[in-house]
Write a structure and sequence with these properties.
With about 220 residues, this protein is α/β, with parallel strands linked by helices. The protein is about 35% helix and about 10% strand. The chain has helices at about 10-15, 20-35, 45-50, 90-100, 110-115, 140-155, 165-170, 190-195, 205-215; strands spanning about 40, 60-65, 120-125, 130, 160-165, 180-185. The strands form two sheets. Strands 3-2-5-6 form a four-stranded parallel sheet. Strand 5, helix 7 (about 165-170) and strand 6 form a beta-alpha-beta unit. It starts with 9 loop residues before the first helix and ends in an 11-residue tail after the last helix.
């Protein structure tokens, strides 16, 4: 597995790459990509870190698994490649942005423009076998991404963590609440959203308000 990552992350994450668990994880991922169809493509496994440098990170959104359908995953949580139909959770994210900020529903489901503005779109597990949700869980990815969350908490100030759903909320104990802001709501999946746990959370306007309070530039949530 080629760890292609923005140079700003390397001083912080190199110690993780050198640990035995990560070497075992890398061997597992190499074997999976060699023997099965896996997503995202190898060059995009660390896309979240390449589009959002450590220095620029000011918002963190935590997902669980990459999409496991053909052509969907691009290394950013909740994001799909251009031209791919929007999965249900992404549809509900865009609907909430529409009502929260009055931004028109976009054609593209590719969230790279958010990442380029300092939104780290971090899945807990960075790879998956095609059509097998959760197939790469408990192989070491969670240990790595928990270390990333802990690192951001320890080394930065005033980052806004958006925790959507029960899985993401479990990461709260990794975050120093005195140094950062945490916004919690239900998961944007239809199961949660249709029960009233997602819509109306206003996380996107709240995020921009919190960024303004600490003198940071706001996120332009608009997409093409």
């Amino acid at each position: 597995m080629n760890v292609d990552i923005h140079p700003s992350w390397k001083p912080y994450l190199q110690p993780e790459f050198d640990k035995p668990y990560f070497k075992s994880l890398a061997d597992f991922v190499k074997s999976e990509y060699k023997n099965y169809k896996c997503f995202p493509k190898g060059s995009e496994i660390f896309s979240a870190f390449n589009h959002c440098s450590f220095d620029d990170t000011k918002v963190v959104i935590i997902g669980q698994d990459p999409y496991h359908g053909v052509g969907q995953a691009n290394g950013l949580c909740f994001s799909v490649n251009n031209g791919i139909p929007h999965p249900p959770s992404l549809i509900n994210i865009f609907k909430e942005i529409e009502t929260d900020l009055g931004i028109p529903y976009p054609k593209s489901g590719n969230l790279i423009p958010w990442a380029d503005q300092g939104v780290l779109l971090l899945n807990a597990t960075l790879t998956v076998r095609a059509h097998q949700a959760g197939s790469h869980q408990n192989k070491g990815w969670e240990q790595f991404t928990d270390s990333v969350i802990r690192l951001i908490s320890e080394k930065k100030k005033n980052v806004i963590f958006l925790l959507w759903g029960g899985f993401a909320k479990k990461k709260k104990n990794l975050i120093n609440k005195d140094s950062h802001s945490i916004l919690e709501t239900g998961h944007p999946s239809p199961l949660s959203a249709n029960r009233g746990y997602w819509f109306g959370n206003k996380h996107f306007s709240k995020t921009n308000y919190l960024l303004q309070q600490v003198g940071q530039s706001v996120i332009d949530w608009r997409l093409e």
